[in-house]
Every structure is written in C-alpha cells, then in structure tokens.
Amino acid sequence: MFVSLHKQQLNMKHLIVLAALLIFANSFSQTTSNDFFIEGNKKTNAKEYKEAIADYDKAIELDAKNASAYNNRGIAKLQLEKDKAAVEDFTKAIELQSTYAEAYNNRGLAYGQLRNYKKALKDYDKVLELLPGNLRAYENRASVKLQTDDYEGALQDFNKLIEIKPKHAKFYYDRGMCLYQMQKVEEACVDLHKADQMGYKHAKEMITNLCN
Description:
By secondary structure, the chain is an all-alpha fold. The chain folds into two domains: 33-136, Tetratricopeptide repeat domain (Serine Threonine Protein Phosphatase 5, Tetratricopeptide repeat, Alpha Horseshoe), CATH 1.25.40; 149-212, Serine Threonine Protein Phosphatase 5, Tetratricopeptide repeat. The protein contains twelve helices and no strands. It has helices spanning 2-29, 33-45, 49-62, 67-79, 83-96, 101-113, 117-130, 135-147, 151-164, 169-181, 185-197, 203-210. The longest helix is centred in the N-terminal third of the chain and has 28 residues, at 2-29. The protein is elongated and about 65 Å long. It starts with a helix and ends with a helix.
C-alpha cells in the first residue's frame, strides 16, 4: 500500500511538471507576429539592426502579409547598407499595401543609395500623390534633383517646402545653396542670411565663404 501511494505521488509530480511545460509551450505558441514586430522596433530604435532583422523575420514567418514588418526590416537593412535587400522588402510591403506611402518613401531612399535616381524620383512622386504636402518626400526629391543637376526642379521643391513650413530655417539654407549652384549669388545670400537669423548653425560659415 505504501509503495502504491509512493508511485502515485511520483506520478503526480510528473503530471505537475508536464503541466508546467505545457503552459510554457502554450505561452510561447501564443507569441504573435505583432509581438516580434514590436521587439524589432525596439531593437531598431536601439540601433541593434541585425537583432531587429531577426525579430522581423519571425514576425513575417508568423504573418506573411505583415506589410509593416517588411517595411521596417527594410529600414534595418538600409542602415546596414544592404540596399538591394532593402528595396526587395519595401517592394514587398508595397505589393501587400499599394497605398503604403512610407514604404514608397523608404524605397526611394534605397534607390537613391543605389544611384537609381529615376526610380527614386518616381517613388517620391508617388508619396506626394498619396500624401500631398509631405515634407520628407519634397526634401528627398529635392536632394535627388540636386544630385542629378536638376537645380530648377530642386528649387521648385524648396519653394514648396518653405511655403508649407516658412519658419523652418534649414529649408532657407538648402534653397540658398541651390540658388548658389544656379549662380544666383545675391538671392542665395538672402536665404543664407535668413537661415542664420533663424538659428541654423551651418549658415554663418557659408555666408563667410560665399557672401563676403
């Protein structure tokens, strides 16, 4: 009788341990795509890009239609200078969500890194179609136009930026530098002085070099 009771107690112990293991396994299985996505975002913000990519991989594994996970994995890859791989992720995000303006903007940045300026401009145009007045898209598009010597086009974008946000000093500085490239020195210096008066720290040096 004693032996039988002892065996029963041992079996109960095993059942308790097994139950605990099942609870743990069930808890793990309930980890969602969004949980990994959130962890990936935390690691991206901490500049732990490789670890972030691993979390986004898991988020996508659990939900292959998680467009945000593809987009943010692309951002992490872009930070690691894996530009082609980043383009693939941004493209997948856009395939899943055709109006995903942030993914178009990010893909434009990746194309810019790859010096595929034509595709970059097309993506920024799409952002502005989806989100008219988007400052980042205007800034990024102006930057590409400067790199391709389209100063007139860049000037139009800087004009629009100042129209939308007239108290932003950097926009005057950027327009001033664009005007200088167009050999419009007097107009350039007006903008550089304006940027300096508004507290943009790089303006004073340019004024000294270009306007005196």
